[in-house]
Design brief:
Helix content is 92%, strand content 0%. It has a domain of 50 residues. By secondary structure, it is an all-alpha fold.
Length: 72
Amino acid sequence: MFLSLLAFVSIAALPAQAATITDEQITEQKRTVMIELVNVLREDVKLLQLIYIQKLQAQVAYLQALADEQSK
């Protein structure tokens, strides 16, 4: 209930605030958000690459162990 009241108050105050925000500020905020999204996605890709590399290393170690076992 409190959150919906808070949202209503925020929305009610929006027209007064919107009048003071310029298109340039909106564009700059969009640009900032997009840059942050790209940065987050880059970090996610790095983590996924590390996970993939670790899985590949584990598979190589397993296959090497199998090969060593068969060569005995």
